[in-house]
Amino acid sequence: MHELSLCQNAVEIIEQQARQNGASKVTGVWLEVGALACVEESALRFGFDIACRDTLAEGCALHILHKPAQAWCWNCSQSVEITRHDECPLCHCPTLHIEHSEGVQIKSIEVE
């Protein structure tokens, strides 16, 4: 379950940023997950809860934002957004070249 290690790394960064800004508690976190990041949302939520234990982020609200990937279709010569790696949404051809698909990123942190 790589989601747990992703969450542990994210919580380290979140806690570091909260401390640097004089926060006493993290109340909300927004994570952006790329469409092709191979991350299971339920496992991410579970791992995040575990990783937040005994930190400034314990009990904070987790908001997950889903971001489509960018791909180039070799058949219709168009740049398209996709949510899974199967076919072009315009011409339905499977000849896609993935241009950009980010993994998991911390987008925002809410603190007290």
TrEMBL record:
BP GO terms, sorted: protein maturation
Keyword Zinc among record annotations: yes
Binding-site list for Zn(2+): 73, 76, 88, 91
Keyword terms of this UniProt record: Metal-binding, Nickel, Zinc
GO molecular function, one term: zinc ion binding
Binding site for Ni(2+): 2
Domain of life: Bacteria
InterPro entries xrefs: HypA/HybF
Coiled-coil stretches noted in the UniProt entry, renumbered to this chain: none
Record family assignment: Belongs to the HypA/HybF family.
Function as written in the Swiss-Prot or TrEMBL entry: Involved in the maturation of [NiFe] hydrogenases. Required for nickel insertion into the metal center of the hydrogenase.
NCBIfam families linked to this entry: hypA, PRK03681.1, PRK12380.1
UniProt protein name: Hydrogenase maturation factor HypA
